[in-house]
Write a structure and sequence with these properties.
The protein has about 525 residues and is an alpha+beta fold. The protein contains 23 helices and 10 strands. Among the domains are: about 155-295, Arc Repressor Mutant, subunit A, CATH 1.10.10; about 440-519, Arc Repressor Mutant, subunit A, CATH 1.10.10.
Length: about 525
């Protein structure tokens, strides 16, 4: 068969992932912090986009910029039905122009003549500081940021470098100390051995050990340790409490983790009361002394959805307005510039592209808010018993159930519930918290949620007495009587995931604490 070139038509269907579609998917799974950063980047690239702050919203309402499209100011008020009524963007026009602008003319808000009887000229209290004050940001002393005058927070290395000259006077020792400081991790532990450091610096190991022993005297106590045992020993030595009994306890931390108090008493040569006192001192020590100087600021979790009880007994689901982006499309600027630009020029094409991008972004943000509200409303409808009665009534739920109820794909629901939080009367929960595995019922009734079963196990262990510590088999029998069919290995897996020790270890600890309380 001869090869020949030919032209023919073929029609088929395919899913094409356009850049805008991919961006919309990414917007859906972004947290509000990531979304804010993305919008700021878009505003820098697009001259038609503006971020509406409090002053901008007031300016729009006063008619200073007519025909602005505000997205993100909307608040969803759908109930547990998952509807979208009442969730529309706010369109501001120029109808209110001048209504609020004349407020300053109607009311006398000036401060020029507050005290008319005081006709004496004003004099500066400190004329020698006027020049410095006016040189600050703002020129006239106004509008400066107080954060510019706040001292920066010191890091662990800054604190240690300030102390090194007081314990080491030799320049070579300080050079070794600086190298050791650079090898500390965030917890204050020394990474790498002294032999490796001696090889790099060309010094004897004994000299490195000598400098290291001096550095271990610095604050905070416990820094420059190479293990947990050494970290605790350094802190006990600083308190003058590293006696032979305490040293034996620190050398056998594995027995302490297993709650093997009988063996510890023999190794330390103390009675049970002294051992409990030693354990109390161990608990007061800091296993990670360097973390107190962490520079990273902890951020509070801001809920994306707020659930409140409605007067009629239902649940009111709202999007948190603090996490909704507020974006303005400046159509006045587009009209003014496009009217002066030839239609066939590159500038006019750039403006049209910016307008299309801005319109797409506002529509995508609106669709993102609607989708989050739909998913959250369906979750509230499914977990109504949890909101009323607590974690014991948390129903088993999966992504497929929610997706089928709201007519969306499972992947969309998965993206919506990633890193999003809901504030409920029961507390703040991640949306993923409401999706749990189903556990069968022992009596053939409704299935149980894995999270509610873990809560039952935790409650039973918290209420057990020292003389009647529950084994995993006892927990299985108690759950079966409560209608939960669970295997023993599953109970052990749940218990270990919650960092709950075994029944043998719990019995030792509870008996020791009971004897200490009666002594």
């Amino acid at each position: 068969m001869a090869l020949a070139a030919s032209l023919f038509l073929r029609q088929n269907q395919s899913l094409v992932m356009t850049p805008q579609l991919m961006q919309s998917i990414q917007l859906l799974q972004m947290t509000h912090v990531e979304l804010t950063q993305f919008i700021e980047q878009e505003v820098e690239k697009n001259p038609l986009l503006e971020i509406a702050a409090g002053d901008d919203a007031t300016r729009v309402e006063n008619g200073a910029s007519d025909d602005h499209f505000l997205v993100g100011e909307e608040r969803g008020h759908g109930e547990n039905t998952g509807t979208d009524e009442g969730f529309q963007p706010d369109l501001y026009d120029s109808a209110t122009a001048g209504t609020a602008g004349s407020a300053s003319e109607t009311f006398d808000g000036g401060l020029d003549n507050v005290f008319p009887d005081d006709a004496s000229p004003r004099t500066a209290d400190a004329p020698e500081l006027i020049g410095q004050w006016k040189s600050m940001p703002g020129g006239d002393g106004e509008g400066y940021d107080l954060d510019d005058f706040v001292a920066s927070r010191k890091t662990l290395r800054d604190v240690l470098n300030e102390q090194v000259p007081f314990v080491l006077s030799d320049p070579l020792d300080r050079l070794i100390a600086q190298h050791l400081v650079d090898q500390l991790d965030e917890a204050g532990y020394l990474q790498g051995g002294t032999a490796e450091t001696a090889l790099k610096l060309g010094k004897p190991v004994a000299e490195i050990e000598r400098v290291l022993s001096r550095l271990q005297e610095l604050d905070p106590p416990g820094v420059f340790a190479r293990s947990l045992r050494e970290c605790l020993a350094i802190q006990l030595r600083a308190k003058d409490r590293l006696d032979p009994a305490m040293a034996a306890l620190v050398d056998n931390l594995d027995l302490l983790a297993r709650r093997d108090f009988a063996t510890l008493k023999k190794l330390c040569g103390v009675n049970e009361e002294d051992l409990l006192d030693m354990l109390a001192e161990i608990r007061k020590l800091d296993p990670k002394p360097g973390t107190r100087y962490e520079t990273g600021a902890s951020e509070a979790v801001v809920p994306d959805i707020v659930v409140r009880g409605a007067p009629d007994g239902s649940w009111q689901v709202e999007l948190n307005p603090d996490t909704l982006p507020r974006v303005l499309v400046n159509r006045d600027y587009y009209t003014a510039v496009s009217s002066r630009t030839p239609r066939d020029s590159a500038d006019h094409g750039f403006l049209n592209e910016c307008l299309q991008t801005a319109n797409w972004l506002t529509r995508s943000l609106d669709q993102r808010a609607r989708t989050i509200l739909k998913v959250a409303s369906e979750i509230v409808r499914q977990q109504d018993a949890f909101l009323l009665n607590g974690v014991d009534h948390l129903r088993p739920l999966n992504l497929k159930t929610v997706a089928e109820a709201i007519g969306m794909h499972e992947s969309t629901v998965s993206r919506v519930t990633s890193n999003k939080y809901m504030l409920t009367p029961r507390g703040l929960f991640e949306l993923k918290y409401f999706f749990t595995v189903s556990i069968g019922s022992a009596e053939g009734g409704d299935s149980h949620s894995a999270e509610s079963v873990r809560h039952r196990i935790r409650a039973m262990i918290a209420q057990e007495a020292p003389e009647a510590v529950l084994s995993d088999d006892d927990i299985v029998d108690a759950l079966r009587r409560g209608g939960v069919d669970l295997a023993r290995r599953t109970v052990a897996k749940y218990r270990e995931a919650m960092n709950i020790p075994s029944s043998v270890q719990r019995r030792r600890e509870k008996r020791a604490l009971a004897k200490a309380s009666t002594a």
